[in-house]
Amino acid sequence: MPPPPPPPSRRNNNSSSNNAVSTTNSDGSRGAYATAKEENIYIPSFISKRPFYAGEGGDEGTTDYLEHQRKKQQDDDDRANANKWYDRGKKLGPAATKYRKGACENCGAMTHKTKECLSRPRAKGARWTGRDIQADEVVQDVRLGWDAKRDRWNGYDPKEYRRVVERYNQVEELRNQLTTGGGGDGAKKGGGGNDDADDDNDDGRNAAGEKYAEESDMGRHQSTATRQLRLREDTAKYLLNLDLESAKYDPKTRTMVDAGAVAADADRAAQLFAEEGFLRASGDAEQFERAQRYAWEKQEREGDTSQHLQANPTAGEYFRKKEREEAARQREAQRRALEEKYGLDGAGAGKNKPMPDALRDMLVTESEAFHEYDEAGLIKGAPRAVARSKYAEDVYLHNHTSVWGSWWSDFRWGYACCHSFIKKSYCTGEEGKRAWEQAERQRTGVGLIEEGPGGEEREEQQQQVNDGTTVEEAEPLKPAAAATAKKRTAEEMMGGVTEADMEEYRKKKAAADDPMAKFLGRDELVR
């Protein structure tokens, strides 16, 4: 509330000795009289200084340095907005007669889109039919302050709480009627209106009130430990019969040992315990447990969650019935096969021919064959079963006539048909073998050194191989000469290695990648 105006005697007396002037706030209200030059030095700086978010100072005529600390007066519009709230369900005037562009395609209102429409979805909306176009809703711009936005009761109508109060009043009236009605009947039976009956009615009302207080949260005088105790009438199962020779209670399974006894002299405690849980094992409870177990097992085995008992009970029941019928059909087929093979005995003997006694004696067969087992537990002398590999066998790919791994050379596996080391290569047959042999001779340098009297013979043999003739068809070397060439005499062994032997060794052991190896043993000059 703004302060009152100054008295008339001081309105025009601005040159008084007190040096006080009338202050005017930036919002138009009259501030209190404050000293124009002096400030209260006892006010802390964090109160007297204007913060940066409060903006700059007011008008030039304003001398109130604590203007930012004073509560500003709200305008009439602000007060109106404070009490303003949304008018739910209010319509704007009459509805349109035809569909307007940009309106909702379902109801025809302009204030919302089709996705935001709360009306019932039509088979054909107002855009195509042009009928039953709804009026536009009132769209309000309610500007709330900081406190109003965070008020949990903002917009709540207190009149709605009257229903709750009325409902509680009705319950209280009904309770009072029941209490007074029982007391009235007792009074009539006792002779009508005596003091004892009134006292009993008062006691009944007090007892009902205390019971109602215990049921509600108002009875805080009773401790929590006392309220959680079991009632005295609720006797424990193991106290029903204290006979040491009677039924025993198993605390682990929470069952009586002889709970299934149905004899005339069965234990009373066991009978009571069995009667208590009879509802859980009667009716469709067993079928429900089976259906639940079937859904769980189906999910664990196959990961199928479509047969959930609560989400899709029809599918679970259908597949469970189908499996039961299939199992019954298989059992019946197996029984018929056994009947046809061995016949029937007893009640069903009239349908099929009974089994003869001679065949009946042969059902249990005996054997006296002698078998000797080895250390591995297999029968000695029995043909060994070839262990099948988990990999594909005898599968020839890419025109090969042998499998990969049928040939071994230089610590590498390959194909025996074409001497190829590449597993996914195409077969080249004999051409591939010859190409591989030539590559090996070139790599190792075999055939580059030709020396001695046998050089011409080796050239002829190589020519015959190139022409297609085998080495066996050509003239073989004399075995005696070959053996003599490799054998060393005792003098050579005792005399050591000579220079000629070293020269011959160097010629034979020349490296394949030596470019001068082919010139060894030749007297020609390179031009």
How would you characterize this protein structure?
The protein is mainly α. Among the domains are: 1-73, no CATH class; 160-227, no CATH class; 237-281, no CATH class; 391-444, no CATH class; 450-470 and 498-527, no CATH class. The protein is 36% helix and 3% strand. The protein starts with 19 loop residues before the first strand and ends in a 19-residue tail after the last helix. Mean pLDDT is 74; it is low at 6-24, 30-36, 183-193, 259-266 and 469-474.
Q: What's the topology here?
A:
Blueprint: E1 20-21, E2 34-35, H1 45-48, H2 76-82, E3 91-92, H3 126-129, E4 136-137, H4 146-149, H5 161-189, H6 195-215, H7 224-227, E5 249-250, E6 255-256, H8 268-276, H9 285-302, H10 313-342, H11 357-361, E7 407-409, E8 412-414, H12 429-444, H13 454-467, H14 479-486, H15 490-495, H16 499-508
Antiparallel strand pairs: 1-2, 3-4, 5-6, 7-8
InterPro entries: Slu7_dom, Splicing_factor_SLU7
Keywords: mRNA processing, mRNA splicing, Nucleus, Spliceosome
Biased composition (Basic and acidic residues): 65-89, 211-220, 318-343
Keywords:
527 residues, mainly alpha, two-stranded antiparallel ribbon, Splicing_factor_SLU7, mRNA splicing, spliceosome, nucleus, Pre-mRNA-splicing factor SLU7
Q: Could you give a short description of this structure?
A:
This protein is mainly alpha-helical and 527 residues long. The protein has helices at residues 45-48, 76-82, 126-129, 146-149, 161-189, 195-215, 224-227, 268-276, 285-302, 313-342, 357-361, 429-444, 454-467, 479-486, 490-495, 499-508; strands spanning 20-21, 34-35, 91-92, 136-137, 249-250, 255-256, 407-409, 412-414.
